[in-house]
Amino acid sequence: MRLSKESGKSPIWNTRPTFLHSDRPLAKYVGRPAAEFLRIEPSGGIVLLACAAIALLWANSPWSGSYDGVWGMEIVFDFGGFELHHSLKDWINDGLMAFFFFVVGMEIKSEIVAGHLRDVRNAVAPIAGAIGGMVAPAAIYLAFNAGTDAAHGWGIPMATDIAFAIGILALFGDRIPSPARIFLLTLAIVDDLGAIAVIALFYTDDLSTEWLLVAGVLVVVAVALRVLNVWYGPVYLVIGVLLWLATLESGVHATVAGVVMGFIISARPLLDPRAAHSAAQEMAEGGLTHEETERISRLAKETVPPTQRLQHRFHPFSSFLVLPLFALANAGMPLSADMLSAAIGSAVTVGIAGGLVVGKFGGVILATWIAVKAGLGRLPEGTSWRLLSGLAAVAGVGFTVALFITELAFRGGDAGMMTDEAKLGVLGGSLLAACLGAALLKLSTPKRTAALEDATGER
Predict the structure, then answer these.
(1) Residues with Cβ within 8 Å of residue 234, at least 6 apart in sequence
(2) Range of the domain at 129
(3) CB of 99 within 8 A of CB of 259?
């Protein structure tokens, strides 16, 4: 970098600023606002909701025929005679969503090893709430659908959508205490873990022992490489792709491969931060060469846990590409007066909406209350039962994983009708839960001015 002769200081740019930092109109009025939008907390949920709305409008527009045509388009990969042929929608649901669950798996691993789930007393209450929030919605759904062909959809209202739930809390800013946010995040993560287990155990096709054995060998290889301290990314990428293929062919849902790889990635730093800091100081004492600067950069990188680095790298791809594509491919359904009339009286729609709104709320509150009163856990600091009721209602927003399980749940002659009724229940129930949660949070949190005064100690 050149030095300015007048001031002796380094200019900000060697030659000219990058496009995003320039004064060009496209950068000023489009690029920088877009970059800022992507950094705000609710942005992933906003994009997801927008794509769901676009899918619904597309499926009910004069071009509705193209909706099924696009997502039903067959894509074939031929590897020396071994063929994989699936629709575009299936490639998204089985392929890209495995990447989403890879990121989720790393989030769960990080929380267990170094996050909120590491402290048993802190973890008991949200874990209990998550269990209650899974059992109660499933029970309500079965109360409406037990003994029918639709009973297999009991897993649909079980999971909480992390992106939407955290996005709703973000609307209230610092009025929501940080421990309360962590409570809901932990609950949603445990919910996701439960949903993954449900998908693996109850929503799989016929199992292939040979492919399961191949998948098991690949997992053993990945674990052995980690024990041997091999951290070359491309190796794990190849193993992950092969594991996904083996899981897909085994009959277990392919997204489970993403979770398994997420759990294999280390949640602890590869280097001790203190030792790396000391080494960097020693190198810096006599001035740094270019090679030493690069080495310090590598030292700093390896003091961050791999799960944290990979989440930071892949989260935008998951939030702003994978999930929006999933919403576009799965949220569209034809809405007619007859269909809406039938859905209102449908046990599938009512069971799912009731599970998300009533089951989640009641299950989370009751299970958390039992855990706290039994002395097994404690409420998050600064969180009242009234505030917890708002968190419990927000937990009923079950958009992404609920739609995902919907696509797996129904088979047979009436599958199309039940799938549409289930999607309507997911969308309607999630919307009602979001509105109820936002209203309860508004009633149970102080006004912004009061919250700021409390935080600064000023009156």
Answers:
(1) none
(2) 118-204+333-444
(3) no
Does some domain include residue 77? no
Q: How many domains does the chain have?
A: 1
CATH, residue 133? 1.20.1530.10
Distance CA 129, CA 138 (A): 14
Q: Which residues contact 45 (CB under 8 A, 6 or more apart)?
A: 161, 163, 164, 166, 167, 168
pLDDT in tens, 273-326: 676 666 666 666 666 666 766 666 676 667 778 888 888 888 888 888 888 898
3-state secondary structure of 40: coil
Say which DSSP state 419 is in.
H
What confidence tens digit (pLDDT) does each residue in 227-250 have? 888 888 899 999 999 999 998 888
Following DSSP, what letter does each residue of 158-187 receive, concatenated? Answer: G---HHHHHHHHHTTGGGS-HHHHHHHHHH
> What tokens does 267 get?
């949640």
- Dihedral angle computed from the Cα positions of residues 47, 51, 52 and 57, in that order, rounded to the nearest 10 degrees: 140
